[in-house]
Amino acid sequence: MNASVGQRVARWLALTTTALWLSAALAGDPQEVDQALLALLKKTVEQADSFEDRFDAEVWLMAKSTQLARYIPDSEERLDLLRKIHQAATRAELSPEVVLAVIQVESHFDSYAVSSAGAQGMMQVMPFWKHEIGRADDNLINIDTNLRYGCTILKYYLDKENGNLALALARYNGSYGKTWYPERVMVAWDNWR
Q1: Cα 101–84–64 angle (5° rounding)?
Q2: Is 76 annotated as catalytic?
Q3: Helix/strand/coil for 114
Q4: Residues of CATH 1.10.530.10 domain(s) within the chain?
Q5: Which of 93, 106, 161, 183 is labelled catalytic?
Q6: From first to last of its 193 residues, what are the pLDDT tens digits of the chain?
Q7: CATH assignment, 92-193
């Protein structure tokens, strides 16, 4: 069930007020709003074309930005990444929170991560996919490219498993038949919801 416009506005106001207060408190003055962060959030929301409306964008970006701060301290980088994640997830018809959870488990939001098996980037995409589709020059460390590959692969496995996220995650990770990886992502997902 979708929240009414009034409920979304109230939710947005509550989250924005809390986030702005928290931002000011962390800056040292609980009465002063960080104007640079406010301007940055406004700019990011205007660029966020994957949301139904501006209020949804503001609420989601502010809530997730607060959570993501422990991994990415720079607010501009954080908001840009969140906008990209939401856009890539939405385009692939995935929950952005699931994608956030996968990234948290796979790379802890390190776009330069490389696994011992050779998987690259935030979503830890295996380079053989580039050769399979004839795009050997694609850079999997590039955030946009990595998100596009990772979200497409995860969505494919989700469809293949008829919507069963645990099985899709196991396929994504290459641990099909085991539960440790899906369990990790599900715990992270609970924190992002």
Answers
A1: 50
A2: no
A3: strand
A4: 92-193
A5: 106
A6: 445 544 554 454 445 444 544 444 444 444 455 565 455 445 444 555 666 667 777 788 888 999 999 999 999 999 999 999 999 999 999 999 999 999 999 999 999 999 999 999 999 999 988 888 788 899 999 999 999 999 999 999 999 999 999 999 999 999 898 999 999 999 999 999 8
A7: 1.10.530.10
